[in-house]
Design brief:
The complex is a heterotrimer of chains A (112), B (142) and C (495).
Chain A lengths: L1 H19 L3 H22 L23 H31 L13
Helix pairs in contact in A: 1-2, 2-3
Chain B lengths: L2 H23 L8 H19 L1 H7 L2 H21 L26 H24 L9
Helix pairs in contact in B: 1-2, 2-3, 2-5, 4-5
Chain C lengths: L4 H16 L6 H27 L2 E4 L10 E4 L1 H24 L6 H20 L3 H19 L5 H32 L4 H10 L6 H16 L8 H7 L2 H28 L3 H22 L5 H22 L2 H32 L15 H15 L5 H15 L3 H26 L15 H19 L1 H18 L2 H10 L1
Antiparallel strand pairs in C: 1-2
Classes of the chains: A mainly alpha (112), B mainly alpha (142), C mainly alpha (495).
Amino acid sequence: MSAYLLCFILFCIGLYCILRKRNIIKIVIGLGIVEYAVNLFLVLIGYRWRGRAPILAKGREILNMVDPLPQALVLTSIVIGLAITALIVAIAMRIYEKYGTFDITRIRRLKG
Amino acid sequence: MTLIVKTITRLTVGLILLYGIYIVLHGHISPGGGFAGGVIIALSFIHLMLAFGKETALKKLSEARASVMESLGAIMFLSIALLGLLGGYFFFNFFIHKGRPFTLFSAGIIPLCNIAICLKVGAGLFAIFVALVLFKGAKETE
Amino acid sequence: MMLPLFVIIPLGAAFLISLLGKKIEKIPDVLANSATLILLALSLHSFVLVKAYKTLVYKVGGWIPPIGICMVLDGLASFMLITVNLVSFFVAVYSVNYMRRYTDKWKFYTLLMLMLAGMNGIIITGDLFNLFVFLEIASIASYALVAFGTEAEELEASFKYAIMGSVASSFILLGIAMLYSYTSTLNMADMANILTQKSQTGILPFVSVLFLMGFGLKAALVPFHAWLPDAHPSAPAPISAMLSGVLIKVLGVYAMMRIFFNVLGVSQAVSSIIIFLGVVSMLIGVFLALAQWDFKRLLAYHSVSQIGYVILGLGLGTPFGILGGLFHLFNHSVFKSLLFLNSGAVVYALHTRDLQDMSGLRQRMPVTANTNLVASMSIAGIPPFNGFWSKLMIILGCIQTGRFGYALCAVAASLLTLASFMKVQKYAFFGKLNEKWETVKEVPLAMRFSMIGLAVICMAGGILILPVFKPFLQLAVDVLMAGREYAQAVFAAVR
């Protein structure tokens, strides 16, 4: 139970970073923390009491395994997070080239 | 980069590439699979670029060839899925003889899918890195 | 058998275009347009299949559903497929000429096909995590497409859209993770069965709020709409038409309705919140649109307002209200895409979007002006165009359930929409021709074909509503009204 609560706290720290920081790169790092928190929550859901790693090997019988399905889901989610981070960093580099600053309070040409 | 980094890189780049290929090919027996192996293979090329500079790395794998390999990996994955239509369903495991478990030639289409994903992810990650490195802003001098 | 084709064809086209598009000049145009034409034909065929069989299930890989992923084709999925593929066919034809102004046309077509594959995948899937993966594919393709011109303002808009969209996707993934831990299955039909047996309190209200936040941001409901007025004008015009016309509906409205009506179950509290958010979006969208002088930004604010209508209709929960909501969803796709394509034609000829600069374009660009008149009358709700009927059905649905205040708000928003579009017509098309625009010509043939095609559908939607459209919509309404019976239908069709 406390592990899930700590995941939520990590999610809220990442969300605070996205909302309050002024540097674009810090916002991207905050987004990374949010994604890691959700992935961690997804893996922790699969834990079973006294479970072992769900890997079959020749000649060994494993009676109780942790749930392998959330691990496959998290693999997909990590790939998606990588793609989004790469895209946003490329956009941020071009924003620096066009606007000359990383400060998000001064990148405000679209208003109204 | 200093001489120490360059010497160690010359020794380890090939080993990293080989380790990545091992993880891809044994994806159905031990943990790993296409995505993790693809990332490690891309890392070997990035390691080469970080130690020796971009001309050396781009001579080994130019960005045009990385783009072609990426598309080929995706098309290979889609055609493996389409070949499953032979067995009646999309993505069907169409190998008749599925082999004994825990050996290298077993588990139907899973090793082929791993290889396709490794091509796509490795080439794609290297292409992303090259695109970010080669980005020339308007203010940079030639 | 043909259900996976909706995902295979755009994905295959995207990868082939990215492989061959640099070397051979004509390949991207030919491949993309033939792919959208084949998809349109397949989606019309799927409607025939659904009329005969009611629910079709395709087991991917041959694995039986609670263990494997399944694809489900029922009335609602067929309706959404026709909407999405119709609009994307016209947009693909339009962008043959429009994207000549930009460099690297093959990159545009690759991203467009990926976005289309993502949207089709969301519509036909029957598995919750599969929905999340396709949602991400479509979203990431749209972030890249909004920044396509790489001007300063487009990059800023795309950055805002990407950060907000990623946070929304994280909320959705958190909701899916909690549902998986509560029911230990990911199949939507199986989850509906298990949730009817468990208690209604517990984590279900929290999960409902998470899904409302996540899908509400993708659909641009009012507390979460701040990315839309920046992102939709900055994209190139065919992409604005796709984003405003189909993407916010498939990612936001369709996914929300599928999960809330068929899996989680709509309680009284959730239904009132959805209706309230819809009404607030209607009013705030149209008030903010009244003050705009940028043509595309005005259209983007009207998107927020009209999605409010759709959510109001769907949230009412009565058969008549849902019929009005779904019909307004189809109509809005058609006339909002037409409006954005018109603004693209104006930008192509004049290179400006400011309404105070242009006047009297009617004499030099007759096709654009007439189709714009048709679309403006549709969105304002003037009979006999299609917008009138759908808004009438939503207002009558409100009165049927006794919510007279909301019906009054809907009528007021419709009047303000009419005022706003009269302003557009007066400043842009009627009046005396400005001397600057003496030499503008009408836009090329492919762009004219798309605009005329969509205008014909607007008019047909108004006139042919009873013979053609009512049976088409009734199947979709039945699926939503059945609620959790969806699970029974899916499992019956699997055997």
